[in-house]
Design goal:
The complex is a heterodimer of chains A (811) and B (296).
Chain A lengths: L16 H5 L15 E7 L5 E7 L1 H5 L3 E4 H4 L27 E2 L5 E7 L2 H10 L1 E6 L6 H4 L15 E8 L3 H10 L2 E9 L2 E2 L7 E7 L4 E6 L4 H12 L6 E4 L15 H13 L3 E4 L2 H7 L2 E2 L2 E9 L5 E11 L12 H9 L9 E8 L14 H19 L3 H8 L8 E2 L5 E2 L4 H11 L3 H10 L2 E13 L18 E6 L5 E5 L8 H13 L6 E5 L16 H28 L6 E4 L2 E4 L2 E7 H10 L13 E5 L6 E13 L6 E11 L6 H21 L29 E5 L16 H18 L13 H11 L33
Parallel strand pairs in A: 1-13, 11-12, 16-17, 22-23, 29-30
Antiparallel strand pairs in A: 1-5, 2-4, 2-6, 3-5, 7-17, 8-15, 9-14, 10-11, 10-13, 15-16, 18-19, 20-28, 21-22, 21-27, 24-25, 25-26, 28-29
Chain B lengths: L6 E4 L3 H11 L3 E4 L5 H6 L7 E4 L9 E4 L2 E5 L4 H5 L6 H7 L5 H6 L2 H7 L5 H8 L3 E6 L2 E6 H4 E3 L2 E2 L6 E7 L7 E7 L9 E9 L5 E9 L6 E2 L1 H7 L6 H9 L15 H24 L1 H9 L1
Parallel strand pairs in B: 1-3, 2-3
Antiparallel strand pairs in B: 4-5, 5-10, 6-7, 6-10, 8-9, 11-12, 12-13, 13-14
Classes of the chains: A alpha+beta (811), B alpha+beta (296).
The complex binds flavin-adenine dinucleotide (FAD).
Chain lengths: 811, 296
């Protein structure tokens, strides 16, 4: 195969897929060492209680080993995610609850037996006596003084409070005072969770002689966990080895220290035998980190011509019971606040954020972290504003969206948008949506047709500032090793393994171009912290930028060494040489060439042919250096039909225009967008972890926690724009852009349909009941019972506003 | 979510199955397609000591079509019946709404009846076509009509030692129209509100048989008797349909859940019943188009 225009940009098939599709992937549950024991957990059935007594005698008689907090606490230092944000407060987390349980599903005891089924049998025999306490469920009520406390020692349920936005606190008041039109919305999104296809799981093997712990784990951040596990379990970092081969989805949910995972390691340490714990779906719904539990009031001020002159928001984030280590519970809320101005010129913005502690599973980062909520609120405001000033929604956006000549642009919340195609994305989106095409079908079915658009920016590939600089073991760069084998093939070792999104494929494409070796001669490996270079994991849409950037750097170094050797062998100057399709050749004279395999053979076995001062090691570790962050952008559009008799919403068309800079592999980006849109549609229409008034989780299986499946999704039409970023490869992250904008586009489409009847919905998921109720209420057909709409915060008097905090980002 | 320990008996015939049930007594459960029972066991909400698997019992794997109606053996899967073109379109249309193809490929018609989920299609269909089940035990057998079969949510008149050997779903009158409609949040989900209508009218559209069965709304599938009575003897038109639909939930103890309150089910349900009655009335006029429509 000859190739002159490079591997980057091609729709290369994913090299990961044959293995996965043929069932040859190695997930945690695929590995069973000899003498392996299996763990199950006794988990709290109640939201908030004192543990009065635990009696495991029957389980022990049945042959199981049972550990409680009293057994594991001596091995483990407690932890909590306290980034260096002023005032952030959180309670300690331990492998097993001691004293109190604080959410349904919190692990109370680990039960170890010869098989998982026997461990579950024994777990049923463990008798835990709980003295129930009043549960803290509503995050707004939680912040009122005098109520029950989740962590008594904190004295309040407020984890964090901050103001973000324009430095001049009076600018926003002035803007609202001058405005021709002001619109306000009060909205909420429901708690959801990632539901990765491969649930969490750990296989812990402790070697008591060497004091070494090997952990096979389904994670997106093995090196981070290596450091965290070593710290918590009192081991040296080079004695903790994390193994991850395939990871079946993570979405931000597998970037934390989890109590059950530490407990499994501690059990292996106490027993001196391998212990495996594979999470089941019921455990996943109870104990994985959750997300998107946000209540927002926001208002926008416009001049007569539709120009945005001010924006304010009041946000209460329901952080759950613990601040996960090391990312904390505040990232989502902060990003709801700081992303809200989006791709628009917003001259004045103030936002007040409070994060409440409640008796629910911990809230943490989930694909697009905070963006879906921020974008939803902003885009809903813009649609309401368009109605108020009687402008077409696209036209209102056109008047306010950033133009290329305004970039780089610092948003009112302090984010720097380095590059992008904000205006062009909007125009392309508008061009691609043809609502008329759907009108006849809607008329035939007697449904209300609606169209919704949403423009977005998204933080990708952030630097060290958000986490590392705030004290967490999370860095910004990754290391990648590239080495050329004696036969001229190349091996690439990634510091950051993938979670299913095709990082091996894209790394090989980038290395192919920077090394000059064809794609199919490159083998990419990852997933063993003992042998792989260091990386900080998959998060914030960073891998295409950071990992590929590091791979390119390493490839360039190795290429320079090959050229130096080839120059000697060919007796020409290295600067006259190039490497194309696996051959070193004199530029402009393609016939004078030698194969890379020959260079590699000499470098490995025939070094006597080379001068002493030539570097013969055809291997190098590259690192990424680049700007602190790069923002992608784009626009989503949805066309929906709303059935007025049932309240059901059907998406009949979906368009996404997306600009993630240089595309390494458009197929992979398309896949990322489709998956993200599916998750966003799920959030808009279906997904809700339903906690009742006692903090009981009612959605305990996938029968009740509704995920969108293929028949529930429209065909998703994608348009790419490539505005290079200022990063070395010109790429930007793309992994979260689908999830970021979809909830807003779908919501706006539904409200566009409902507005024909004077109705709107304000809360997600948009259930058929909420739609029917809105339609009925707009027609004065009132419902007797209370609606299930969550409370939304009132405006806080900005009297005592302190200085604004500056954001960074976890996309 | 691992099953608790249990003993397993694979029955190779009806006689073998009922013998096993007699031997093991109330601790034994029949295993049909396992699509409801196994998840319940995984959640440890059901902990039987013995499973008697009838899914491969040769004499239970048949169904027989007679005059448009059908008698279905206990081991016949939903999918088998659904894909038999000789089966009445009302029945096939109902079956096609049960979960997903994967579920229907394993799940059995009799298992769904025995399970008696209040939101399931089959118990509602049994009521709508006024069918019956044949219960067989080691000591004998009996036939139970639809109206006496389901006693409450997940509760039937099956006694210890008995199994549903077959279900009979009789044909509806050739002149009758029918409709099956559901509101579900995702395709394949159990219905938030479901309705099966069978309407028979004479040439002047006067109704002489009306059956309206609601499912997913109450503790069991129920006949909307007030709506049925309102239609009987009336000319079926827009007005009478609307009046009947408004009465559909009269006397029905509607229950709400996470996915829809009782109020939602009543309001959306009334409109669903109206649409179903309309469709059934249209089909009653022209039974040839009704068959074509079901196939489409
Ligand atoms: C994802 C999913 C979606 C579903 N969606 C729907 C839906 O939309 N609508 C719907 O109606 N159903 C739905 N189901 C349930 C499905 O139809 C089941 O197959 C059916 O309810 C039970 O049939 P089965 O043969 O699998 O019975 P099993 O699961 O084997 O048994 C169910 C119960 O019936 C008993 N039983 C089984 N056969 C007999 C018999 N012959 N005599 C006496 N007792 C017997 C068992 O002991 C058990 O108590 C769904 C299931 C799943 C997993």
């Amino acid at each position: 195969m000859t190739l002159t225009d490079g591997w980057v940009g091609r729709r290369v098939r994913r090299s990961e897929d044959p293995k996965i599709l043929l069932g040859r992937g190695r997930f945690v549950d695929d590995v069973r060492p000899t003498r392996c024991l299996h763990a199950a957990f006794v988990r709290s059935p109640v939201a908030h209680a004192t543990i009065v007594a635990t009696d495991a005698s029957e389980a022990v008689q049945a042959g199981a080993t049972v550990f409680t907090a009293a057994d594991l606490d001596p091995l483990c230092t407690p932890w909590k995610g306290l980034l260096d944000w002023p005032g952030l407060a959180a309670g300690d987390q331990r492998p097993l609850a001691s004293g109190k349980v604080r959410h349904v599903g919190e692990p109370v005891a680990i039960v170890v037996a010869a098989s998982r089924a026997e461990a579950e049998d024994a777990a049923e025999l463990v008798d835990v006596e709980y003295a129930e306490l009043p549960a803290v469920v509503d995050p707004i009520a939680a912040l009122e003084p005098g109520g029950p406390l989740v962590h008594d020692e904190l004295g309040a349920n407020l984890a964090f409070e901050s103001w973000f936005g324009t430095k001049d606190e009076h600018a926003v008041d002035a803007a609202f005072a001058q405005a021709t039109a002001v619109v306000e919305v009060a909205m909420s999104t429901a708690r959801h969770t990632a539901t990765a296809m491969e649930p969490r799981g750990v296989l812990a093997e402790y070697d008591p002689v060497a004091r070494e712990l090997t952990v096979r784990i389904s994670t997106q951040a093995p090196n981070m966990l290596q450091s965290a596990f070593a710290e918590i379990l009192g081991l040296r970092e080079n004695s903790v080895r994390m193994l991850t081969d395939e990871v079946g989805g993570a979405f931000g949910m597998k970037a934390h220290v989890y109590p059950d995972e530490i407990a499994t390691c501690a059990a292996s340490m106490l027993l001196g035998r391998p212990v495996s714990w594979i999470q089941d779906r019921a455990e996943s719904l109870q104990s994985d980190t959750q997300a998107r539990d946000e209540r927002v009031r926001a208002a926008i001020a416009l001049a007569g011509d539709g120009t945005i002159i001010g924006l304010r928001s009041e946000i209460v984030s329901d952080g759950g019971a613990y601040s996960v280590y090391p990312r904390s519970m505040v990232t989502e809320g902060i990003q709801v606040s700081t992303i809200m101005p989006g791709p628009y010129r917003v001259p004045a913005y103030r936002s007040h954020l409070r994060v409440a502690i409640t008796n629910k599973a911990p809230l943490a980062v989930y694909r697009a972290v905070g963006h879906p909520v921020a974008i939803l609120v902003m885009e809903a405001l813009l649609d309401e504003a368009a109605r108020a000033v009687k402008l077409d929604p696209a036209e209102l956006r056109r008047r306010n969206i950033l133009k290329p000549e305004e970039l780089p642009y610092t948003s009112a919340a302090g984010h720097v948008y380095d590059s992008g195609s904000h205006r062009e994305s909007l125009e392309r989106l508008v061009d691609r949506i043809d609502i008329g095409r759907h009108a006849a079908a809607a008329r035939r079915r007697g449904t209300l047709l609606g169209v919704g658009i949403a423009c977005f920016v998204e933080v990708t590939a952030p630097g060290v500032a958000f986490y590392g600089a705030r004290g967490a073991p999370i860095t910004a760069h990754d290391q990648v090793e590239v080495r050329v084998e004696p036969d001229g093939t190349a091996t690439v070792l990634l510091g950051t393994p993938g979670q299913g999104q095709g990082l091996h494929t894209t790394a090989a494409q980038v290395v192919a171009d920077h090394l000059g070796i064809p794609f199919d001669r490159i083998n990419v490996l990852s997933g063993d912290t003992r042998t792989m270079p260091h990386g900080t994991g998959v998060w914030a849409s960073r891998s295409a930028v950071v990992s590929s950037g590091a791979a390119a750097a390493a490839a360039r170094e190795v290429k320079a060494r090959m050229l130096a050797i080839a120059a000697h062998l060919m007796e020409v100057d290295a600067s006259d040489l190039e490497i194309v399709d696996g051959a070193v050749r004199v530029a402009g004279a393609p016939d004078s060439r030698i194969d890379v395999a020959h260079v590699a053979e000499v470098a490995h076995w025939r070094t006597h042919q080379l001068p002493d001062d030539l570097q013969v090691a055809l291997a190098a570790i590259g690192e990424y250096r680049g700007p602190n962050v790069t923002f992608n952008n784009g626009a989503h559009g949805a066309v929906v039909e709303v059935d007025e008799s049932s309240g059901l919403v059907r998406i009949v068309d979906y368009v996404c225009v997306e600009d993630c800079g240089v595309l390494i592999n458009p197929d992979i980006v398309d896949g990322q967008i489709r998956g993200g849109v599916a998750q966003g549609v799920g959030g808009a229409l279906l997904e809700r972890l339903h906690y009742d008034g006692d903090g009981q989780l009612l959605t305990s299986t996938l029968l009740d926690y509704l995920l969108p499946a293929a028949p529930d999704l429209p065909d998703i039409r994608i348009t790419h724009i490539e505005t290079p970023s200022p990063t070395p490869l010109g790429v930007k992250g793309a992994g979260e852009a689908g999830a970021a904008g979809a909830p807003a586009a779908v919501h706006n489409a539904v409200n566009n349909a409902l507005a024909q009847r004077g109705a709107r919905v304000w809360h997600q998921p948009i259930t058929p009941e909420r739609v029917l109720r809105a339609l009925d209420e707009a027609a004065d057909r009132l419902w007797p019972d209370r609606s299930d709409a969550p409370a939304v915060p009132r405006w806080t008097d900005p009297e005592s506003e302190p200085e604004c905090d500056q954001p960074e980002g976890d996309g | 979510m691992k099953l608790p320990a249990f003993a397993y008996h694979r029955a190779d015939s009806l006689a073998d199955a009922v013998d096993a049930l007699a031997v093991h007594g109330p601790e034994a459960r029949v295993l049909g397609g396992g699509q409801s029972l196994l998840p319940l066991m995984a959640l440890r909400m059901s902990v039987p000591e013995v499973l008697v698997d009838i899914s491969t019992a040769a004499d239970l794997r048949h169904h027989e079509v007679h005059d448009g109606g059908v008698t279905v053996g206990a081991a016949v899967t939903t999918r088998t019946l659904e894909t038999d073109p000789g089966v009445h379109p009302l029945i096939r249309s109902c079956l096609a709404r049960i979960g997903h193809v994967e579920i229907r490929t394993r799940g059995t018609v009799c298992g769904s009846l025995a399970h008696a989920d209040p939101a399931a299609e089959l118990p509602a269909l049994l009521l709508a076509v006024e069918g019956s089940v044949e219960l067989v035990a080691a000591h004998g057998s009996r036939v139970v009509p639809a109206a006496e079969f389901v006693a409450g949510p997940y509760t039937t008149s099956i006694d210890d030692g008995e199994l549903v050997a077959a279900a009979t779903l009789p044909a509806i009158a050739a002149s009758a129209g029918w409709s099956v409609r559901e509101i579900a949040r995702r395709s394949g989900d159990f219905a938030l509100v479901g309705v099966i209508c069978v309407l028979d009218v004479d040439r002047s559209r006067r109704c002489h048989d009306a059956r309206v069965v609601l499912f997913g709304v109450a503790a069991t599938a129920v006949r909307a008797t007030a709506a049925e009575e309102a239609l009987l003897g009336e000319i079926v038109d827009g007005l009478s349909v609307e009046q009947a639909a408004e009465l559909a939930f009269t006397g029905v103890d509607v229950l709400g859940d996470l996915h829809g309150s009782a109020e939602y089910r009543r309001r959306a349900g009334a409109r669903l019943v109206a649409a179903a009655l309309d469709e059934a009335a249209d089909r009653a006029h022209d039974t040839t188009t009704s068959r074509a429509a079901a196939r489409a």
